[in-house]
From TrEMBL:
GO biological process, any: base-excision repair
Entry keyword annotation includes Cell division: no
Protein name: Type-5 uracil-DNA glycosylase
GO molecular function annotations of the record: 4 iron, 4 sulfur cluster binding; DNA-deoxyinosine glycosylase activity; metal ion binding; uracil DNA N-glycosylase activity
Signal peptide range: none
SMART domains according to UniProt: UDG, UreE_C
Keyword terms, alphabetized: 4Fe-4S, DNA damage, DNA repair, Glycosidase, Hydrolase, Iron, Iron-sulfur, Metal-binding
SUPFAM superfamilies associated with the record: Uracil-DNA glycosylase-like (SSF52141)
Family assignment from sequence similarity: Belongs to the uracil-DNA glycosylase (UDG) superfamily. Type 5 (UDGb) family.
Amino acid sequence: MAPAPPSGSPAFPEHRARTARTLPVLDERITHCRACPRLVEWREETARVKRRAFAGEDYWGRPVPGFGPSDARLAIIGLAPAAHGANRTGRMFTGDRSGDVLYAALHAEGLASQPTSVRRDDGLELYGVRITAPVHCAPPANKPTPGERDTCRPWLAAELTLLRPTVRAVVVLGAFGWQAALPALTAAGWEVPRPRPVFGHGAHTVLTSATASDLHLFGCYHVSQQNTFTGRLTPAMLRAVLRDAARAAGLR
């Protein structure tokens, strides 16, 4: 068997994701990835310099794995960790205002044990839901490049493959996540129709598979401050999508 490529190789995600047999193993491997030099430099520099409000904290400063049970029926796909949110705390959508909005809505819909997500050891549990992203490192200006997205894709494809026995619905937050999720879903065994479904808030399509159950795919505006502060995405709008997805996933 050929040796695994080094963590800084562009081949690292493909090889290490493909050979992961469980989600805990996949999550652990993700945290060691250094395949995208620009992202590695940015996430580590941010962890060294820190934001003044968090100057006394030890930043995570590594790729952030998915969060939630291995037998989730509903997956939520975002964009990438925030520099002073998940890049600081080490958990998806934890420690920033986007997470405040998302977890409050999940709690209101009975999908999370509490409405806040402050740090990795705060006791938060998700009920039948797993949260992940197409890019696992915090990017400058919250904008991964297409190349970084593609290099990171094997992690998402492997995660969806490992969730395939139980997952029945996916909510994608934002157009970037939508475009990244479609090829990952194809790689995980679902058939994406042609022409490809177009992203929009409230978009809904059903993907079929020869080897897995049908998958309900939902679009939702991202929970970024740009959307939530302007009213483009309200808590009621977010809850409505989560409610429909939970029902499609059999969590209602």
